[in-house]
Specification:
The chain is of the alpha/beta class and about 240 residues long. It is built from 9 helices and 7 strands, in the order αααβαβαβαβαβαββα. A 7-stranded mixed β-sheet has the order 3-2-1-4-5-7-6, with helices on both faces. Helix 7 links the parallel strand 4 and strand 5. The structure holds S-adenosylmethionine.
Length: about 240
């Protein structure tokens, strides 16, 4: 184990995470890092490739979701707009029992994630190429998941329509955001309400190494997804659910 891995594992304890099979899990993170850098030469996956930065700004940052709820007792997670696998792949490495479903509109990113799951030997990871608006219309995915995550995908008023339809009643949607979210959070109350979601809390945190700000906004699903939602692909982005 080198210094970066040692520091990473130590920082995870600050999130209440103790790796259950540390050696294997750290090897999986390292293999993920290597695949990310290798595939990034052929396609656009991330602007961050320096190893220490990837461990902090992608791996650690993804795992901050564990501050909100106990993933150890959840069964299913859906990650919407996962891109290169954040936050779902780090969560799956740390909580290997999770059934993970990934939805992303870009086929080549889905191919990358299938390769990651294969090489890292991650079981029960389903990668779906498609739009969230369509996947959430199918009975298999609608109102189903214990936890739904999204990092850096869209404004909350849009994101609520992408993500809340996947959450089971009583389940959580965790939106992972950067700094300055106050206005966006206020604006999102309307869309949450339309989708039978309600804000549970907003957590502020700071990345331990470089000190940048993050916010985790958690919504709880209070009832089934109303029939009208999500609207057709593209509409949530074009006509976000905001109070007129
Ligand atoms: N979550 C990753 C992260 O934090 O690094 C990726 C963020 S990337 C900026 C946004 C991703 O969301 C892209 O991979 C894009 O294809 C996907 N996306 C955007 N709108 C989507 C939609 N309606 N349905 C599914 N995926 C979508």
């Amino acid at each position: 184990m080198d210094e970066i891995q040692q520091q990473f594992e130590q920082r995870l304890t600050g999130l209440g995470i103790t790796l259950s099979d540390s050696r294997r899990q750290l090897d999986q993170f390292e293999a993920y890092y290597r695949l990310l850098v290798e595939w990034n030469e052929k396609m656009n996956l991330t602007g961050i490739t320096e190893r220490e930065q990837v461990y902090e700004k992608h791996f650690y940052d993804s795992l901050t979701a564990a501050r909100v709820t106990d993933f150890g007792t959840a069964a299913s997670v859906a990650d919407i707009g996962s891109g290169a696998g954040f936050p779902s792949i780090p969560l799956k490495i740390v909580f290997p029992h999770l059934q993970v479903t990934i939805v992303d509109a870009l086929a080549k990113r889905i191919r990358f994630l299938e390769e990651v799951a294969d090489i890292l030997e991650l079981k029960e990871v389903r990668c779906i190429h498609g739009r969230a608006e369509e996947a959430a219309r199918t009975p298999e995915h609608r109102d189903r998941y214990d936890i739904v995550t999204a990092r850096a995908v869209a404004r909350l008023s849009v994101l609520n329509e992408f993500c809340l339809p996947f959450v089971r009643i009583g389940g959580l949607f965790i939106a992972m955001k950067g700094s300055e979210v106050e206005q966006e959070v206020e604006e999102s109350r309307y869309s949450a309400d339309r989708l039978n979601g309600s804000i549970r809390n907003v957590q502020h945190l700071i990345l331990p190494g470089e000190g940048s700000e993050r916010h985790l906004i958690t919504f709880v699903k209070t009832g089934p997804t109303p029939k009208a939602y999500p609207r057709k692909p593209g509409i949530p982005l074009k006509e976000p659910l905001v109070r007129q």
